[in-house]
Amino acid sequence: MSQPPEFGPRYDSTRQAWENIWDTASVERELVEIDYARSQKTIQTYLPYLNKDGIHLEAGSGLNAVVITLRKLGYNIVGLDYAEKALHTSHAYDHTLPLLVGDVHALPHATNSLDSYLSFGVLEHFEHGMSPALAEAFRVLKPGGVLVLTIPYPNLVNRYVAWRRRTQGVTVLNDDDFYESTYTRDALVQNVTGVGFKLETVQPTSHSYTLWGIGGPFRAKGYYQTSQLAEVMGEFLGAVLPWPFNFSTLVVARKP
């Protein structure tokens, strides 16, 4: 797969980083995480917007825990990723999974051909921004098709870590070779509507996982598992301070 020349030097290094990340991960662990309360709450929020008779794509599907989960629920969903190792690992787990090697900026789908496009924690990894990938999502969706998107939010904990790194004179990025950003609610909405989508809902999610990032009593022993304390406090913060402690933002939008 060649690097689109306009996307800059971190495009390939971020892709290679994902190859390395998925090479040390497992489908089984990803399936454990998708059963956590925070993940299930997100799934139950967007499922009503998906048509079981439609054709769905998860763009940037990684080890395909979402694909596996939704297929078990009866949805016809295909996974796509530019990290080939992740797809090989997924096929080793279940060789029947419909998976494609591809780039979210140049999808191998016809215009107006898909009923939904799902993207979870993917588009924040492009230094050039999310608009090119969103425009491609808009292209492949049918009129009335649904975009489901989650993106990290610059919550109070995230902002504190960024401030501390700046005062220490180091990059705000976690890794110079692995690009990752966050989007405010307004910036995310502007990107989504800017390519033509009409909003259905914008919701803050996963407040307990923001607390997990603090560590200590907010972490349980499992794979990225939050403690009961984090879950209780996360529910409270989601009710009284939904945006300051929001880990990620869920957007559901529709192609007119």
Q: What can you tell me about this protein's structure?
A:
- Helix content is 39%, strand content 19%.
- It is an alpha/beta fold and 256 residues long.
- The protein has a 7-stranded mixed β-sheet with strand order 3-2-1-4-5-7-6, sandwiched between helices.
- α1 (10-23) packs parallel to α5 and α2 (27-34) packs across α4.
- The longest helix is centred in the N-terminal third of the chain and has 14 residues, at 10-23.
- It is globular and about 45 Å long.
Task: Provide a compact summary of the structure.
The protein has 256 residues and is an alpha/beta fold.
Task: Give the overall average pLDDT.
Answer: 92
Given helix and strand content, the structural type is alpha/beta
How big is the Rg? 18 Å
Named at the architecture level, the CATH assignment is: 3-Layer(aba) Sandwich
Percent in strands: 15-25%
**Could you give the order of strands across the largest sheet?**
3-2-1-4-5-7-6
The largest β sheet comes out as: 7 strands, mixed
Which CATH class applies here? Alpha Beta
Large-scale geometry: globular
Q: So, the CATH homologous superfamily?
A: Vaccinia Virus protein VP39
Which features does this protein show?
alpha/beta, Rossmann fold, single chain, globular, 256 residues
Blueprint of the fold:
Layout: H1 10-23, H2 27-34, H3 37-46, E1 55-59, H4 65-72, E2 76-81, H5 84-93, E3 99-101, E4 114-120, H6 131-140, E5 141-152, H7 156-167, H8 185-194, E6 198-205, H9 207-212, H10 228-240, E7 248-254
Parallel strand pairs: 1-2, 1-4, 2-3, 4-5
Antiparallel strand pairs: 5-7, 6-7
